[in-house]
Amino acid sequence: MPLQKLLWIATQICQGLEYLHPTIVHRDLKPANVLINGADTDKPVVKLGDFGLARIRSMTLPTLSPEAGTDMYSLGVLLWVMLTGQQPWEGFAVVAVAYKVAVLGQRLPLDQLSEARCPPRLRNLLRQCWDADPYRRPAAAEAFKELLLLQGALTAGSARDNGSGGGAGLSSGSGGAIKASEYAQPRALTYAFSAPAPDGS
After folding, report:
1. Fewest CB atoms within 10 A around its CB: which of 14, 55, 138, 168?
2. Are strands 24-25 and 55-56 parallel, antiparallel or unpaired?
3. What is the pTM of this model?
4. What residue ranges define each of the domains in the chain, with the CATH number in brackets?
5. Which residues, in sequence order, are bridge partners of residue 37?
6. CB 166 within 8 A of CB 155
7. pLDDT digit string (tens) for 154-190?
């Protein structure tokens, strides 16, 4: 999956979490619960599904709830799956994964990802999502803005490589970055998301 498309999907996931977190925590964010319409296009429409484990939040401020931090940790894992095309903690039982993460403080490996595939800014966002302290993890709105900036930088870099002289403006043309206004309303989806092949295609 091209990085530009991956960022497009990730921004919509963050927008969905931002929409939920004033009142609801999803608690089961994973590839099977991210639904996609137009998966074969450069800009598919993405929606979050399966709210069987969701719960109403007892707190008001989205950045101060450790439960919202659970969703942000899962967002980091989901981004890792899209970047690598691999299953997280494959071969380990659930109890073993819980021990490695909660007790040993281990995180999914990022070293195998090249800088072109996972730019430093994206790598840093993943690490923030995996912070051991849920209160220190970014809010969905913060992650959304960071991903928009990443996409703008990627678009600007592509423009320079192509000699077009384009800037880093957040346009919505084909292959361009996302306008925040394009996320004003939720949209219906029909297709389940599946992780990319290991070669990133």
Report:
1. 55
2. antiparallel
3. 0.72
4. 3-192 (1.10.510.10)
5. 45
6. yes
7. 888 777 777 654 433 333 333 334 344 443 333 333 3
